[in-house]
Amino acid sequence: MVQQTIEEHDVSPQNVYNMDESGFAIGSTQGACVIIDSRIRSQFQARPGRQEWVTVIECICGDGTVIPPLVIFRGANLNTEWLVPAELTPGWRFSTSNKGWTSDIHAIQWLTRCFEPATREKANGGYRVLILDGHGSHITVDFISHCREHKVLLLRLIPHTSHLCQPLDVGLFGPLKRTLSVKIQPLIQTEVSRIHKPEWLTAFIQARQTAFSHSNVLGGWRGAGLFPFNPEKVLRHIEIPPSPTAINPTCPDSPMHGTSLDPALFNSSLLTSSPLNAEAFRKTASALCAQVQQKKVLATPVRQLIPRLTITTERLHAENSILRTRLKAATDVLSARKEHKKGMRVSLKDQLLSRRTRPLPQRRKLPHRKNQQRNRPKEASGEGSGRHRRSRVIWTIILVI
Fold first, then answer.
1. Mind listing the pLDDT tens digit for each residue in 306-348?
2. What is the reported pTM?
3. Do 85 and 167 fall within a single domain?
4. Statement to judge: residues 212 and 66 lie in one domain
């Protein structure tokens, strides 16, 4: 499709572009998953505690040149303190978003204010090709309409193929993030709790100058099989699983009783598939046992199977250990919840809750003196009224005390 579009509209490599976004976490180095031996005493370096996302929109050309990027910081407004001297970032654009992500507005702004001015003169009125992935901001009405009006042909990649077909992913973003980790590492080693935006931007400029070299840009196009056009660059990375009929189903218990050796039975895809095909794994193991028992020189497919079988067994053992640990943690949580005593519903209305899950008793409010006089029944004057006056005096004394 790419080659057909380029030939049909007579587009030269200097007018073929690839754009994509990449995110960076300020305060962290390149992410990695490391498996270590827990019995070894080692010291590990922690990342700075503050993580903030920054998105950069990059675009490269088929002739090896690069368009100035759009950097999107996290924030409501752009602060000039975040930037570095203008001579270090000629033609760069800066913007903000609530989370540091790109959006439909950022995509159309990049197209009209970054891509269009930088490529219009080179196209000289001809067609331009823009290769991009299927991100939602790339297929909005405004984005597509602008491309149609300005003779920009959009070529959208098939989902989940950008790591193979997109030059930026193939040859540039990986070296950029590795180099950026190296540039930021001295700052992280100072054990600062926070990396500021200008510090990150300075390291990013240096890393970009190293990673986005002319040779690396051409290498990205070459690795994606576009310039020069070579589909085998991509097709050779696609592993086609064997069909179920490729495995001999006649002897499931001992598939190697015959004299012929079926290479498909020892295919690595049987051991690297996720999740593992248990039936195929059992047949492969039975075939290996049969070959070893014959006490003959092992064929090449069998010899290659042994280390793969060992690695697969170790992987399964590691996965089993992780699952057992997770199961134990889930069981402990459920046990703790079952042992937790049930509470009781308490109606709280202008009351406090004590540790015994019972409301604290309210202090009894004494009626106001005027209310007492208002609500007191009228009594005849004499001994009864005198006793009432004496009791009122005693009650008043008690209240004072």
1. 777 777 777 777 778 888 887 887 777 667 656 644 544 444 3
2. 0.58
3. yes
4. yes
